[in-house]
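Technical annex B. To support the medicinal chemistry partners, we prepared a structural model of the target in complex with nicotinamide-adenine-dinucleotide, based solely on the information shown next.
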Amino acid sequence: MAILVTGGTGFIGSHTVVQLLNDNREVVILDNLCNSKLCVLDRIKEITGKMPKFYQGDILNIEDIEKVFKENNIDSVIHFAGLKAVGESVAKPMWYYHNNITGTLNLCNVMSKYNCKRIVFSSSATVYGKPQSVPINEDFPLSTTNPYGETKLMIERILSDIYVSDKDWSISILRYFNPIGAHESGLMGEDPKGIPNNLLPYVARVAFGKYDHVNVFGNDYATPDGTGVRDYIHVVDLANAHLKALDRAAKVTGVEHFNIGTGVGYSVLDIIHAFEKAVGHEIKYEICERRPGDIDECYANPKKAYEVLGWKAVYGIDKMCLDAANWQKKNPNGYGD
Ligand code: NAD
Ligand code: UFG
């Protein structure tokens, strides 16, 4: 039996595929490469000694999904495929709704047809909107502030409704906090197109001379040093949560939501200082205006994931920055062309 990993050549997907292969699980990837590169497969092979089966295809195309199910014995799916840039989703909402929601509906339809009813879905802490307090529990009220977040929330609801209609489904909804870091080999990491929107890849580029300084978006938040606080999680820790979720899905049916974070919040300045430690030199920054839509603090209560899945994060912020720095140093142009 094989696990279908949609979006398996992307940042989180590729790290998850490595953990799955290292655990001797059979993996099939479906990705249209709209935000990832084919050479990721070679990196996966270099790390694990195994080449995962790969289909270049689109979840918007039912035939592409069907082909994978026809040719393989898929018993569960980890569903990463989706568009993820908040700003882009505001500019191009129809593209985001179509890709993320229609794509997921297509996938679930094909899964149902082939009697494959186990899915682990990549949701996001963004579904908590501006949380009433921190740490955030899974039962906090849900709201969103942009089309990207709305697609995550809608998909969560769609999956819940699928379970209501058919109690054979096992649905694990993982709400990721802020994934950063890279594989410790330096062979795989985050490879954003153009200028990164997220803090970590930006800091990494400043640290290795691609940009002059980090723009710190506001220092008047209600946080200890005034800069935004987030729950950064090492991508390999995050990847491992998917293996635990798959194991759980094989045992129980239902819909379950899990926060996947460390439970510790770090400010923008904490991150810059941790990265300075990782690279051994100063990183320039300038305080500038707040970024619209940003919140003060966001960090998880990850207790449920520990109690129910037996998962918890093991890597701290220093390791996250060390691995991200190693990746950036060895791959200044990401995966290249
Ligand atoms: P990513 O862009 O690196 O990976 C997503 C992959 O999906 C890419 O390889 C892309 O080519 C593929 N894809 C997109 N649309 C597709 C389609 N229609 N058909 C087939 N493949 C398609 O992103 P990531 O950071 O690895 O994120 C993976 C998932 O986790 C996404 O669903 C994202 O929304 C979610 N998530 C990410 C973060 C984060 O900060 N990285 C946080 C919370 C949730
Ligand atoms: N920040 C800066 N300068 C930058 C980039 C970011 O100061 O150049 C600050 C932000 O203001 C925020 C913190 O760094 O305080 C983290 O920002 P990111 O953009 O790295 O991450 P966000 O928390 O804004 O958003 C991320 C993902 C979303 C996801 C959310 C919750 O990008 O898709 O985490 O999981 F929804």
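Notes passed to the chemistry partners:
DSSP finds eleven helices and 14 strands in the chain.
The pocket of nicotinamide-adenine-dinucleotide (ligand 1) is lined by residues 7, 9-13, 31-36, 58-60, 80-84, 99, 103, 122, 124, 176, 179 (CB under 6 Å).
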